Amino acid sequence: xxxxxxxxINDRRxxxxxxxxxxxxxxxxxxxxxxxMAVYTFFTFVTAGIEEATLTFANWQEFLSDSYYxxxxxxxxxxxxxxxxxxxxxxxxxxxxxxxxxxRHKWLLLLLLIVxxxxxxxxxxxxxxxxxxxQGLINATLLHLGLxxxxxxxxxxxxxxxxxxxxxxxxxxxxxxxVSLEGIDRSLILAARSMGCTSAxxxxxxxxxxxxxxxxxxxxLCFVLAAGSYVTPQLLGGPRDALFGNLIYDTIMGQLxxxxxxxxxxxxxxxxxxxxxxxxxxxxxxxxxxxxxx
Amino acid sequence: MNAPSxxxxxxxxxxxxxxxxxxxxxxxxxIVATVVLSFNASMFGGFPITGFSLHWYEVLMxxxxxxxxxxxxxxxxxxxxxxxTLIGIGASLALVRFEFPGKSAVNTLAILPALVPETILGVGxxxxxxxxxxxxxxLILLLGHILLALxxxxxxxxxxxxxxxxxxxxxxxxxGAPRGSTFREITLxxxxxxxxxxxxxxxxxxxxxxxxxxxxxxxxxxxxPTQILSMLKVSISPEVNALGTLMxxxxxxxPLLGGLAAxxxxxLKSQKQQMGD
Lengths: 294, 277
Fold this sequence. Notes:
heterodimer; A: mainly alpha; MetI-like fold; B: mainly alpha
């Protein structure tokens, strides 16, 4: 780094002044609230909306002893894992296609992956009611053809929730894998081919391993976002398909049990945090940033 | 150029093409269904289609709740976009153009809100204002939206700033220009595309936000997405389809037109430069 005269790259005061608003904002609006929330988990719940600052382990005891909460946790983890895997299986193909195609207007294919980010998430989610619902495209078509006599129950199931989540998360996966593929030195593949690899072998031995960082980043993002979701189970799932996010919302906004709600939030935070930390031990967070700024 | 030519590869390539097509259909089919159904004359929100009508758009335009929610979301998104971009430029400059102790910690901190689920950010901020006995207010909603948009703005501006070579700034400084005018005359114009992109990005993040807004909004206030959610609680009506379609046209149309305008402008500029040469 060649710093010319007059450009004081080490001017700490100016650097901190520039970064200060961001740092203060994130500390006050995120770090501090999570710390307060952690303290709140030890508060005593009196009645709806009211709690006392008397320290107790009652909330943690309730969470740890009641299998009702464990069920939610397992279901959330399961839905998150299934969603992430489906995203990886479906998303690898378009990412590979965009990377490998000789099609001149690649940007159009990439743009089509960005467009969903511009469309309201709520709208994208409720749109599935038109496909899966009793009056949806699938049922309307099957009824019209006379293949079924009454609508199939496709909506308000766990399958519908996973489908909605996959629909929402696929662009993240595709973009992450694509960024990773773009980083591969194409001469490596040519080298493998000229040494006698079939293109399938070249893919298995060179392309796939080199794209794994993007795939892993995509898996992490999809899992974390799926496990933290609230709107999708709310709109596409039945009462039995609620996930941990819905449980937290109902505990706080419905039952007004703030200490328990805080406890559940901390549980989800720690769980997802552990997954992210385990991931960054192996991969580093830089891959995620690459994918997000793509 | 990478399309394989041998037997096993050709089979795999066809599978890739077919799956890609399916994924794109999967991505857009539900959205197309919503748009098509918004013009349906039927009383109900689903299939079959009984005829073409703009009736539900008229009904929508007279829905006072929707109009209020739209205005609320609009000003919150505009303020969020302006403030977040301003703060984000500062942080990006510090992170790209300076060396200081704690830099990597600041870098991680700036990305963190994007990695924490919204539910947790939502509950956290809510618990904190309850702990200090403050009611939910527009200010909290606004600050929350800035928090959600900030990581993405910093990422976008940082990426562009890394691409702007330092020599231009150094040239200006060594010619005696003060730092302020160097930023105004050199850095900012070169940074403009990223500023533009991050304003759009912050706007859409705020305008779209649902989950966290459910926690943060003041009692009785609806933003556009929460309004849609509450309309969906009753049933999926043709009115919701019309609203969804309008929102799609706005949120997809604005960035597309913006991108097109930017392209045309830069095209004109380079034409001018060529003529000048």
